[in-house]
## 1
Amino acid sequence: MKTKFFAPIFFIFYLIEPSFAQESALSQVYRDGDLLSVRVGKNMLTFETAVSNAAKQKGLSKRIVIPQDGMIFLFEKKQRLSFWMRDMLFPIDIVWIGEGKVLSFHENVPPEPGISLSELTRYYSPPNTDTVLELKAGDVLKLNIKKGDKFTIREKLEGENDK
């Protein structure tokens, strides 16, 4: 009797909270804080992962320095995303990735200290984005990252969760 009651409750939760299902597929492969080796164009880079909704929302907020080459945000579905600079202490470059290539980017995005949440500038991705990279400001230019550059995740390295 309990199993008949449990299944509909889970199904209702799934319909109400689709991000739960969205996180679960990615979290089976990657965890927050994992280090990934990726190729962007001709560059081999290392990024710290943000997979859970909480880690994606926090991003690099309140950090003093960028970890490794930056942070990679992984999404299960292709979508139009909105990022902000809430509690950021330094400028960054934001690279929007989809279908295995660089779709576009925002360079030298400045922090906005003291700005209320409702007034923070939002930075929007193209509609088919499933991965976002946050790098040090100026790295898009320095690394010669261009729209259309190929993007691949090469391998998972040792992350915070593996120590």
## 2
Amino acid sequence: MKTIAAYATLLALALVAEASLLRAGRGLRAPVSLGGTWEVRTGGSGGVLPNTQTLSIEQTGPDLDLHLGNVALRGSLHGTAIRAWGATSFSGRLDGDAIRGRFEPEGATFVAARVREPRGETRAAPARHAARAGAPAPSKRNITLPEGTL
């Protein structure tokens, strides 16, 4: 009888703890998704972009890895506000389907629009994220399997 009472008490405690966690997390929201390729147009003083107008963003929660041509930046997302730093830095805000901001200290303004993926195609997960999870990084080699293995 003591075993059943102990079991019932522990089960009740687990249910109360789970209900409390669900209630506490009810207000949590995932950050806005910025990952992908963006087309950048600048205004103001020139010379900020290195021979390309493509911005690639990899996102893990609010942390961002940005690649503007051969310039790598680290950044963060707070609500719709974006801040990135590296060889240059910029601050911006997500405005609908565009990112609007300013490069610092150059002062050039920019607008970036997301490049849509063709229908039916999906982006592969970045290799650095797969490696973090313990999965092997994707290979660029063609692999030939013997006939009848699939």
## 3
Amino acid sequence: MKGLNMRVVVLTCLITLAAALSSYYYVYQYKVTDPLLARITQLTGVKDVTFTTVGNKRRIVLSLSASADLPDVHYVVNQCGAEAFGKRFGGVVIRDDRSAELAETYYQMHFHIQQGIATGQFTQMAVGLAQIAKQEQLDDYRVYVDTEYVYLQLSKDGSTLFELIPRSPETLQATSVAGGYAS
């Protein structure tokens, strides 16, 4: 040990650690993130995809075009994210370019949506939503219902609103995220 220079030993350890961490990053990028990004960007209606980390969870953040099939895109991206990230998957966040007018229209519609969820009378909900969509002269309006969410897409004058309204308190706890919904 007489001939060892501590600076050289410490520097060698630091370089080795940096090389190991950077190789992990690039392998993770190559094996997980890049294939996931390629798969999601191929979906019809997906304009942009980014990944964020909140705590130890990875979220997929989507920007969609007005022509996107919200339930299908959401389902596929959710499945891909769960497969790629496993327990670290923090859900899907959908960003939109809603206008104040579309936000107000959604506010008017949300009473019908909550009533439909509470009573299970989704055909009545759809009638109420269609009346509001016609009254507000929306360019496009779509509503879908599955076992977990009511999906709502509204478009007017180049702006689009996407909402995923949870149908149960359990789904609500898993989905609420500032700036969008994760599921």
## 4
Amino acid sequence: MKAMMLKMSVMALAVMTMVGCASNSENAGPSDEDQVMAVAQAVADALKAADVDAMVSHFSDDFSNDEGASKEATTTALKGYAAGGFLDDLDVDLSSMKVKVEGEKATAAPVDLEGGFGAISLDFDLEKRDGKWLVVYMSQY
């Protein structure tokens, strides 16, 4: 009888532990992959709206692009493109984008753009800093 009670107690404890783990994972918030996807989506939405300030708000202070331009220089260039109408009617496509997370670093690529200037793709490198994913590097091709 004692052995049966012990088995039932152990089983009950195991079930409670599994339920507790399941409920904790549900409340843990979005995964890193989902957070990186959300940043890429926010950058894409801002670019489509020609809202350069909103776009670069997701860039780290030490951001650079494949031409060596800083966050400030990239902001200036993008504002010039927006003023010149190059971001008007921009089509932004994330359907081919893949997100890869390795620890505190991630990539999101490609983000395909098409507009009056033609078509290009962007690749983002991101880092998690103080719990927030930020774009630290962007290349285009």
